[in-house]
């Protein structure tokens, strides 16, 4: 008999390919238990129940090409920079003859370290592009049931091009050296703390301009949290009003149109103007993202509330915002001084306990 009762619930058992399968229905109904047994038999026949007829895991290369890249194409169609990043990272992994042949459920940090060592000719930024892609692929493999837990993949050190903080003098010299319209784009990044890609994709309906000030709205980005509305700084407000006037006061369309595939400015159409500004300003070279990093770092120092900075930055996690919070020695000293003063005040009110000899 395949259905039987144990305690208050019914169990079912049956033979499948020479193996005895036995499970609790967790139900007190004989009828429901029989239905669950029938469904279990059907799912096994169709190869649905993976825990009993587990299919072999794909290799890293197979998973990236057949599943990860198609997913990335669909998921990040509206964010070409992110899509380009994952394409480039996946290409590095697939071309590596060793890591691409490892089963996705067998990958570990040792494989990642070997991969990084074989790419020693690349900069840490380039190597970490592949490692971040691997991290994302493993998380998706977990979500899709291909692995039980993802390996912890460590990035290589030395990737500091995006974490530099410019001085006020460097920022001023750089922005003064920028040519139009890169000057408007760079100032928005530097003052509002937007990602460069978010500025490139701005449209005129996303900006409210009036005589006193205004707002800009980021409608989409890397995550849902990227959507946000920010007030314009006086400098950005003035530049955007001039730019709007120069464009004959359009009500729609890209704010920074260009001859790119997307129809608006992007990293490729602006890199020449960025290089010219760097040379003219005489500052140590940096990537445009550093303007955002500088803005958010200074905001974090002035605001003191990381959750506000998180909202301004469009982060989905406070952990990401913590990268911009750099407490200085004097700030740490003030914090301890405040704590000590409070402790002394409490001790005075309560009375200092005396030790009994």
Describe the structure.
By secondary structure, the chain is mostly helical. It folds into three domains: 3-45, no CATH class; 60-143; 168-324, Intergrase catalytic core (hpI Integrase, Chain A). It contains 14 helices and six strands. It has helices at 30-45, 60-75, 80-95, 109-118, 124-143, 168-177, 182-192, 196-200, 234-246, 267-281, 289-303, 306-313, 318-321, 329-350, and strands spanning 3-6, 9-16, 19-27, 207-209, 214-218, 228-231. The strands form two sheets. The protein has a three-stranded antiparallel β-sheet with strand order 1-2-3, covered by helices on one side. Strands 4-5-6 form a three-stranded antiparallel β-sheet, with helices on one face. It is elongated, with a radius of gyration of 29 Å. It starts with a strand and ends in a 7-residue tail after the last helix.
Sequence-ordered SSE layout with sheet pairings:
Blueprint: E1 3-6, E2 9-16, E3 19-27, H1 30-45, H2 60-75, H3 80-95, H4 109-118, H5 124-143, H6 168-177, H7 182-192, H8 196-200, E4 207-209, E5 214-218, E6 228-231, H9 234-246, H10 267-281, H11 289-303, H12 306-313, H13 318-321, H14 329-350
Antiparallel strand pairs: 1-2, 2-3, 4-5, 5-6
